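fyi for ur records
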Amino acid sequence: MILTNARRAIVPLLMFVLVACGAPGRVEPTAIQPTIAPTMAPTPEPPTPTATSEPSAAPGAAATQLSFTPATYTDERAGFVLDYPATWTVDPSSQVGVRGGQALLLSPGTTLETLADGGTRVSITTYVWDPKNDLDAYVAQRKVAWAASGFTITREEQWPLADGRTAYVFVVKTPEQPTFTLLTTSGQDYLQIGGDGDSALVEEIAHTLRPLS
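which gave:
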């Protein structure tokens, strides 16, 4: 969809901030039951249960206690869903140049152009970028772009997603404020979730990312 002149002026600025620039579900381990021998004389001692370790919970792996009443954002083409506050509005996916599309999740009073006082804005962006199927190379390119802009990475980690993919997570210090960014794959394209405003809330929303069932 062709953006209006106003949106074409604003979206590249928002994308520059986001590019330059929630809670995991708990999966309980399955308890291993001891095998009890049939009753007979004498009754043998039951074997000692084998201890199991609790697996690391992946984002979106199970229902979790969120800080907000959720609505669900679904991208059928990219094959994922995530949760966001039900009081927010969605600015649906639109073309950003020829190599990507973007949707915005907006807190009350926030628009594409303006972040309300105390508001939060989350962007969900898919990119067509070469080489394909090389998330490490894409992440390296993003880090070079941040460094070239004078931004500092203050946190870097990896999240295992529920379908086995890896997401790279960054908190980047910009002149305005720290920003949260998640980078992963979307088929052969690349997916970025970021935002401005309440970075903790942006992260909580990003942590609900899961594959479309």
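The domain at 5-19+75-211 is CATH 3.40.1000.10 (Protein Transport Mog1p; Chain A). thats all i got for now
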